[in-house]
Design brief:
Helix 7 (243-249) crosses helix 10. The protein has two domains: 2-135 and 310-325, 3-Layer(aba) Sandwich (Rossmann fold), CATH 3.40.50; 155-307, Glycogen Phosphorylase B (Rossmann fold). It has eleven helices and twelve strands. The protein has 326 residues and is an alpha/beta fold.
Length: 326
C-alpha cells in the first residue's frame, strides 16, 4: 500500500521508514528514513513530521517521547488471543499492543472482526477506531523455475506460514480420501515442530508422497500455484483478514475456509466453508461440485468480488484518516 499512498501524495507530504533492503520498492523521489534495530531504543528525530503511521500493532518503532507528533496505529489482528498459548504469553502480547494504543491518536483495523477484538480486549479510551480492508495483491506473471516444485497431478494449495494456528494438518485427510490430489503447502516454517508434525502425520495417513512443503516462494511461483491449483484450502484458526482468500478469488479459484475469526467476513457467500474439521471431505466434495456446475459464471463472480478489495480504495481511506488527524 505504501507505493499506492506515494502516488497520491507529493514528495514533501510522505516519507517512509523502511529497512535499506526494501528501498528499491520506492522511486528515488521518495524520502526514506533508514530503519535499523537500535531505533527500537532510540527513535530518530521526527520533529518535522505531523503524523507517524505505525503499520503493525506490535511495532517497537513508535515515537514515545515526542508527544507533538500524532500516531496512527494499524492493528491487523489479536490472533494470539485465539491461539493455544499460556495466559501469561497472551497477557504479555496484549500489554504491548495496549502500550501502542495508549500512544496512538487513532486506530485502523483491517476487518470488523479485528475491530471487535480490539474493543473487547483493549482500552481505546474513546479514540477513533476505523476499519479499512486490505487490498488484493495483484498477482505477477505466473512462473515456475526449474528448481521450483511442479505438481505431478491436480493439487490443492495453501499459502502463508507453517504454524499450528493455520491448522494445515487438517487438510491431510482430504488427500487420504482423494487419491487423485496432492497438496502444496507454501510458506516460512515459523514453527519447526509443527512442520515436523505435518511430515509425521502425512506418513501416518500414507499421503507423504502427495504433501509438499515448499517453504517460502517467490511472487511468480505463488501466482503459478494460484492459477493452476484446483482450490485454495484454508482451515485456519486465526486470521485478521486472510489475503489468500481474495488473491485466489482474483483468478476465479474456489476457496475453502474455516468459520473462525475474520474468514467468514472476508469470504462471505463467495467462499465454501468447513462445518466440521473431522469430516471435511463432504464439504469439499459438495463445494467442488457446485463450483464446476456454476462454471465461468462463478469464476467471474469471484473475480469481481475480489476486485472490491483494492489498494487504491485502501489508500484513499487512509488519506481521509490522515486528514482527520491533521
Amino acid at each position: 500500500m505504501g507505493r499506492t499512498l506515494r502516488q497520491r501524495t507529493s514528495p514533501e507530504e510522505l516519507s517512509v521508514f523502511i529497512p535499506q533492503h526494501v528501498r528499491e520498492a520506492f522511486d528515488s523521489s521518495t524520502t526514506c528514513i533508514p530503519q535499523h534495530s537500535l531505533q527500537k531504543f532510540m527513535m530518530p528525530s521526527v520533529s518535522q513530521y505531523h503524523i507517524w503511521h505505525s503499520t503493525y500493532q506490535s511495532s517497537q518503532y513508535v515515537p514515545r517521547r515526542n508527544k507533538k507528533i500524532k500516531v496512527l496505529l494499524t492493528i491487523h489482528d489479536l490472533n494470539f488471543l485465539h491461539e493455544d498459548k499460556p495466559d501469561y504469553k497472551k497477557e504479555r502480547c496484549l500489554d504491548h499492543v495496549q502500550r501502542n494504543i495508549d500512544r496512538s491518536d487513532a486506530i485502523v483495523c483491517i476487518s470488523e472482526f479485528t475491530k471487535n477484538d480490539v474493543l473487547t480486549h483493549c482500552n481505546t479510551a474513546g479514540k477513533p477506531v476505523h476499519v479499512i480492508y486490505n487490498g488484493t495483491n495483484r498477482l505477477q506473471q505466473p512462473v515456475l523455475k526449474s528448481k521450483s516444485y511442479r505438481p505431478r497431478i491436480p493439487f490443492l494449495f495453501n499459502v502463508g506460514v507453517i504454524t499450528r494456528k493455520k491448522n494445515q494438518h487438517r487438510i491431510l485427510p482430504l488427500l487420504q480420501q482423494n487419491p487423485s490430489l496432492e497438496l502444496v503447502l507454501a510458506g516460512r516454517h515459523e514453527d519447526k515442530e509443527y512442520a515436523h508434525f505435518l511430515h509425521e502425520h502425512a506418513t501416518d495417513l500414507k499421503v507423504e508422497d502427495r504433501m509438499h512443503l515448499v517453504n517460502e516462494i517467490t511472487e511468480e511461483e505463488k501466482s503459478w500455484y494460484y492459477h493452476n491449483c484446483q482450490a485454495v484450502v484454508m482451515p485456519s484458526l486465526a486470521e485478521g483478514f486472510g489475503l489468500p482468500v481474495t488473491e485466489a478469488m482474483s483468478v476465479g479459484k474456489p476457496v475453502f475456509l474455516s468459520r473462525h475469526t475474520a474468514l467468514p467476513e472476508i469470504g462471505k457467500d463467495f467462499a465454501f466453508y468447513f462445518h466440521d474439521f473431522d469430516n471435511m471431505h463432504d464439504d469439499f466434495t459438495a463445494g467442488m461440485q457446485h463450483y464446476k456446475r456454476a462454471g465461468s459464471q462463478m469464476q467471474e463472480a469471484l473475480k469481481a468480488y475480489s476486485a472490491t478489495f483494492n489498494w487504491e480504495d485502501s489508500a484513499r481511506k487512509y488519506m481521509e484518516v490522515y486528514r482527520s488527524m491533521a
